[in-house]
């Protein structure tokens, strides 16, 4: 059955194969165009440099009008990655647009793997962690003014487990 979502995903896949962005790859799982596996390589000069991180993208028939559910399969410690692998990223939530394709989603996640909080935010988090001795919720604001709640589980959250 060929639906608009499936046609769009086929077009996204073809585009990703013909002109793959640096540091990412992705493809549908087996014969299911609605479920993708992806890999992001850690950005240079970050704690994730040299790392290889696996993700899944689950699409619905509402794509591209609704974003996919994207989760890290690889364990990742980062203020914008939750314990279940879901991602705190504006384009996957309140800033979604149908113009985003799979390549745009993955390339938006990759730089997010760099430490994007300011030193003062990091220091504030570490102080909160040390004071509370437990997981800490804190707000982080991006340069465009978007605010998101990110849950962090320990002060060493900036390093992935699979390095």
Automatic annotation (TrEMBL):
Residues 4-156 form the UBC core domain. Keywords: ATP-binding, Nucleotide-binding, Transferase, Ubl conjugation pathway. The active site is at residue 88. Pfam families: UQ_con. InterPro entries: Ub_conjugating_enzyme, UBC, UBQ-conjugating_AS, UBQ-conjugating_enzyme/RWD. It comes from the Eukaryota. GO terms for molecular function: ATP binding; transferase activity. The keyword Cell membrane does not apply. The keyword Nucleotide-binding applies. Belongs to the ubiquitin-conjugating enzyme family. PANTHER family: UBIQUITIN-CONJUGATING ENZYME E2. This is UBC core domain-containing protein. It comes from Panicum virgatum.
């Amino acid at each position: 059955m060929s639906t608009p979502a499936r046609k769009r995903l086929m077009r996204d896949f073809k585009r990703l194969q013909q002109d793959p962005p640096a540091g990412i790859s992705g493809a549908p799982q087996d014969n299911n165009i609605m479920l993708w596996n992806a890999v992001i390589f850690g950005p240079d000069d970050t704690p994730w440099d040299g790392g290889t991180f696996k993700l899944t993208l689950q699409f619905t028939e509402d794509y591209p009008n609704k974003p996919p559910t994207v989760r890290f399969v690889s364990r990742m410690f980062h203020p914008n990655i939750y314990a279940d692998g879901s991602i705190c990223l504006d384009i996957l939530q309140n800033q979604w647009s149908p113009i985003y394709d799979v390549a745009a989603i993955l390339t938006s996640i990759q730089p997010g793997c760099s430490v994007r909080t300011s030193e003062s935010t990091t220091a504030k988090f570490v102080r909160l962690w040390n004071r509370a001795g437990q997981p800490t919720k804190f707000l982080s604001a991006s340069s465009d003014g978007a605010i998101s709640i990110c849950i962090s589980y320990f002060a060493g959250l900036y390093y992935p487990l699979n390095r």
